[in-house]
User: Which sequence fits this backbone?
């Protein structure tokens, strides 16, 4: 039945039924049915119920915190990640390939490990935390701590999407710009950056999506004070521990809705920027 | 315009021999130096410092204390559970990834873009929401879950739930690596094998698989790292039962919350070492098989 929906055009290649069968079975079991169960729970709770759960100061505070900090972290990663990609793709320096490998560490390091490591580092008795303390500042257990964790988990996305694009830019384009009298900075700003924009935005969106939903690396460093440093995913966990399945589903659905709206907007910006500069 | 004397001290002897002008497609050496310094400094603070702390904290009371904490039954059962979860969920995802990539790249059908979007969906869903969705579907208070528990096959708060959660968060990994490579390679080699009379399986095993094996290994590597380290989704579905459903990351949290710093960081160091090994293997694959993996980076 579902196979009929994805009917292949005539092809001599074997294995369509088997491949599509495995794909759809797994997709249904792992992704579609659970996400469907989440939506069904929300539907049976009713829009009014969902709204009454979400529309409380504590939930709004958590959602606002999660999305605001995720956005700031993604903006930081957009700028730093692009710079990093440029340095790795264009400059020669000793240990460049090593550095290139290190960029992926946040992907490979489990989030719980990153969480306790960042906390140890930025807590008042840690190396960086102690430094901040001597200046009368606090990093761990404040919004700053959460921000650092979110920057960490999203760091490689922009670099990994932008780097291959830089590698494929033809030097002739830059030379043409220079012969037409543009200074190096002007060329970078008006020629190179627009070429990198679509890929950078893809990385930005991935980094944002990751940061919004991040849990493991944040809960250790956040302090988890209601209304202050409590992220939205933590609220879901709390609701689940109270066996409030309706409440948990309501917050989960709210997060999904906001994330998808954001990703949609980024997609639209991307289409717009691709049209403006032509296909890269 | 360009004052070469200004940059004199920054030039290496090798560059001295070269002409004194620099290409228009280059930034000034000073700019380069500043950008490299920002990049390396940023990485050192943001990425290397946390990594170093893991090992420093694990060894804070000496190597013996760290090793002893790893041999405790709690740590040992966590390590075993994590290995079991990875041993089940990685092959499952590899089979799915191959099937999905084969279907998507070897055939034309309507709704292909939609199918790819669905496969990518787990990347944009919070692990906690993923765990929640699994609890709502398979938990004891749902129809399906109630029946499963009654027939002695509980999923949530048990091993199957942890596996499902791990498969969910790593779902797109293998497929995503394979699809660009298989698009790039096209269908002609397989078609040639078919016209020569090879069976479908034979085509796959002798033509397709050798062409994609490095990309497959690459995807499996990333999938494994994530499966062993997943925390959010597993925290929700596992119920965190000591000695039974506590994976390594969950046990790290428990130990850390009990202020058993050395024990928590020793287990963390083990996972960090695994992450470093993953990175080393991944880098090696990228250097040796750059031609095959290039496609995955381009898309």
Assistant:
């Amino acid at each position: 039945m579902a196979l009929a929906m994805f009917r292949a055009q005539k092809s001599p290649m074997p294995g369509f039924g088997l491949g599509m069968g495995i794909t759809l079975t797994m997709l249904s079991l792992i992704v579609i049915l659970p996400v469907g169960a989440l939506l069904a729970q929300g539907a049976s709770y009713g829009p009014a119920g969902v709204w009454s759960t979400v529309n409380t100061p504590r939930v709004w505070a958590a959602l606002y915190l999660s999305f605001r900090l995720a956005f700031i972290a993604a903006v930081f990663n957009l700028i730093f990640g692009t710079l990093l990609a440029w340095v790795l793709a264009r400059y020669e320096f000793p240990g460049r390939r090593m550095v290139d490998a290190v960029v992926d560490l946040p992907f490979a390091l489990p989030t719980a490990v990153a969480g306790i490591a960042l906390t140890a580092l930025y807590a008042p008795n840690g190396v960086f935390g102690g430094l901040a303390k001597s200046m009368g500042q606090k990093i761990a257990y404040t919004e700053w701590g959460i921000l650092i964790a979110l920057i960490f988990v999203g760091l490689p996305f922009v670099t990994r999407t932008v780097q291959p694009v830089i590698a494929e830019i033809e030097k002739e384009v830059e030379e043409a710009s220079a012969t037409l009298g543009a200074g190096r900075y002007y060329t970078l700003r008006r020629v190179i950056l627009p070429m990198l924009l679509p890929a950078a935005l893809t990385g930005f969106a991935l980094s944002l999506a990751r940061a919004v939903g991040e849990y493991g690396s944040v809960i250790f460093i956040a302090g988890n004070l209601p209304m202050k440093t409590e992220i939205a995913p933590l609220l879901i966990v709390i609701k689940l521990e109270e066996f409030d399945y309706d409440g948990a589903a309501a917050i989960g659905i709210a997060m999904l809705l906001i994330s998808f709206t954001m990703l949609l907007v980024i997609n639209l910006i991307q289409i717009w920027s691709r049209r403006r500069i032509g296909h890269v | 315009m360009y004052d070469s004397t200004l940059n004199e001290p920054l030039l290496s002897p090798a560059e001295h021999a070269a002409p004194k002008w620099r290409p228009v497609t280059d930034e000034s050496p000073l700019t380069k130096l500043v950008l490299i310094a920002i990049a390396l400094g940023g990485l050192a603070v943001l990425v290397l410092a946390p990594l170093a702390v893991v090992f420093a904290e694990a060894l804070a009371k000496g190597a013996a204390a760290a090793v002893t904490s790893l041999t405790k039954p709690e740590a040992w059962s966590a390590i075993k559970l994590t290995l079991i979860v990875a041993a089940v969920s990685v092959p499952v995802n590899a089979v799915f990834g191959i099937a999905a990539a084969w279907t998507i790249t070897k055939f034309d059908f309507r709704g292909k873009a939609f199918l790819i979007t669905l496969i990518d969906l787990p990347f944009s869903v919070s692990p906690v929401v993923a765990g929640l969705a699994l609890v709502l579907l398979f938990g004891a208070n749902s129809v399906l879950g109630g029946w499963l528990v009654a027939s002695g096959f509980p999923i949530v708060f048990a091993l199957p739930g942890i596996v499902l959660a791990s498969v969910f968060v790593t779902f797109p990994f293998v497929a995503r690596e394979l699809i660009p490579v298989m698009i790039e390679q096209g269908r002609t080699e397989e078609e040639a094998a078919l016209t020569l009379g090879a069976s479908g399986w034979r085509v796959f095993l002798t033509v397709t698989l050798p062409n994609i094996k490095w990309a497959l290994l690459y995807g499996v590597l990333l999938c494994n790292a994530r499966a062993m380290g997943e925390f959010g989704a597993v925290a929700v579905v596992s119920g965190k039962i000591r000695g039974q459903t506590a994976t390594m990351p969950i046990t790290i949290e428990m130990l850390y919350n009990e202020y058993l710093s050395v024990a928590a960081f020793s287990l963390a160091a083990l996972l960090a070492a695994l992450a470093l090994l993953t990175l080393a293997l991944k880098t090696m694959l990228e250097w040796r098989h750059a031609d095959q993996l290039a496609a995955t980076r381009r898309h």
